[in-house]
Amino acid sequence: MTDRIGPLRLALEDVKTALVRDPAARSALVIALSYQGVHAVWHHRIAHWLWTHGLRTYGRLWSQYARRRTGIEIHPGATLGRRLFIDHGMGVVIGETAVVGNDVLLFHGVTLGGTTMSPGKRHPTVGDRVVVGAGAKVLGPVHIGCDARIGANAVVVKDVPDGATAVGIPAKIREHPSEREAGTAASSIDAGDSHIHPDPDAAPGYVEQREPAMYYI
């Protein structure tokens, strides 16, 4: 999923992604030196290379070193796409057979886990441009469609269609939040995260509606 570009270019792309997606980011230097979510992705690329080149023991050891350094556990067998951003990051777990697409955003406490101890495909496949909110658990070999949104603390055990929003325990597909739920939002997701619903028939000057941040953070 990295399209065979060089490691330096990938690392610079990761830093740029964090600058775009995190409104608290102040500089590329701060991101490169202190963002654990970015560091976890960098460590994973090394561990994954070792894992896929027959050095599985070393890959596993490297991933556990990264876990201790970052608080994020990514199995070296997992496949991660480009421009993945893990915001805050603490407590994120990504299982061995998980596949994560490009431009995905994961918040802290997310689990891409399994529901069986049997070998084989047992972890989720996450499409491109998906957002998974804080504390959400996506379990089993489910498919999360491109541009889907998983709300904070949701437990997903079934496929989520492209562009859908899934919230609750167990997660259900929701088109829009209720008035009470929307009232609990402290802020809105910024336009850079694409959580906006444009109205092609809107009058000039109309402000696009955005999903409440409480769905994600």
Please tell me about this protein's structure:
The model is unreliable at 181-198 and 207-215 (pLDDT under 50). This protein has helices at residues 7-21, 28-34, 36-52, 56-70, 179-183, and strands spanning 73-74, 79-80, 85-86, 93-94, 99-100, 105-106, 111-113, 125-126, 131-132, 137-139, 143-144, 149-150, 155-156, 165-167, 172-174, 196-197, 209-210. The strands form four sheets. The protein has a six-stranded mixed β-sheet with strand order 3-6-9-12-14-15. The longest helix is centred in the N-terminal third of the chain and has 17 residues, at 36-52. It contains five helices and 17 strands. Helix 3 (36-52) packs antiparallel against helix 4 (56-70). The protein is globular and about 40 Å long. A hairpin with a 4-residue loop joins strand 14 and strand 15 (172-174). It is an alpha/beta fold and 217 residues long.
Tags for this entry?
17 strands; 217 residues; five-stranded parallel beta sheet; alpha/beta; 5 helices; 27% helix
Write down the overall mean pLDDT. 84
Proportion in β-strands: 15-25%
Largest sheet: 6 strands, mixed
Quaternary class: single chain
Structural class computed from helices and strand pairing: alpha/beta
- Put simply, the count of helices is 5
The total beta strand count reads: 17
Please trace the helix and strand order, writing H or E for each element. HHHHEEEEEEEEEEEEEEEHEE
